[in-house]
Fold this protein.
Amino acid sequence: MALLLVAATVLPDGLQTRPTRVEVAVAFGVAAVMLMVFLRLTLAERSHLIEYGVLGVFIHAALTERAERGRRMPWPAALAILAAAAIGVIDEAIQLALPHRVFDPVDMLFNTLAAGSSVVAGLLLARVRRSVRV
């Protein structure tokens, strides 16, 4: 299910235009780094990486679209990371009330890092795309 979510996030953007060699190289580099991180994590951490990574990308896309439509939206990337972090805090706070669940501040940090790394990777790919196509 998680791979379908990632594919639904990445493929529509990637299929809009044919990527150049530089874009493909950067995309493979980002994917290689993410894969190395992914393989070193436990199953629970992997799910957080996917969930909060996709969440960060979705929030960033929504905020960027609002900014493109004329709404004042300073630093959509930072706001997306902060929003995903806030959702992670809420998620952990809910676990305080649930038996058999543990409130873990490290999870909140990891959720923020997962969202941040995905948003930054998206910004890097977008910057490469703009510089190559200009």
